[in-house]
Design brief:
With about 160 residues, this protein is an all-alpha fold. It is built from eight helices and no strands. The chain is elongated and about 55 Å long.
């Protein structure tokens, strides 16, 4: 938490960006500087993730890793989420499974979601789970799965 506070204060200009005194030799400052270098973020303001508390809880495990590793795991998670969502929606047909997979992974907006690391794949999974459980007449589970659609409050 201290690392996040220090990085936020440095990026927002509350703490000067030039090293002065013992604080700048601390592990928090070095970690913040390393994260700025790895992410390429050099602006004087902090870019927040505009997510609901549900989204923050879902993304919390990714904060255990460094930024490059977390982005790699997020990409794998997004690929898996879209794959599972397509399988759930197409589960009643069980024929020509390759058609929806090619259509979904070949869709330009899906590819842009992967490239930009967006959370709308989680919203898609929530809708796919809802449709799947609604068809099975599991209304409570279908309703609970709609909680995943609250990840992005902008939608």
């Amino acid at each position: 938490v201290l690392k996040l506070i220090v990085c936020t204060q440095v990026l927002s200009g509350c703490i000067p960006s030039r090293p002065q005194g013992r604080f700048w030799q601390s592990a928090e400052w070095q970690t913040c500087a390393a994260e700025q270098t790895l992410t390429g973020w050099t602006e004087s303001y902090v870019m927040y993730a505009w997510l609901s508390p549900t989204g923050n809880v879902l993304l919390l495990p990714f904060s255990l890793f460094s930024f490059p590793i977390a982005t790699y795991y997020w990409l794998l998670t997004s690929l898996l989420v879209v794959f599972v969502g397509v399988l759930l929606i197409w589960s009643h047909t069980k024929k020509r499974l390759w058609v929806p997979l090619v259509a979904s992974f070949g869709f330009s907006m899906t590819l842009l979601s992967f490239i930009n690391g967006q959370v709308n794949t989680i919203v898609f999974l929530g809708l796919a789970l809802f449709l799947y459980f609604k068809e099975l007449r599991r209304d409570y589970v279908a309703g609970i799965s709609l909680a995943l659609t609250t990840v992005n409050p902008i939608l």
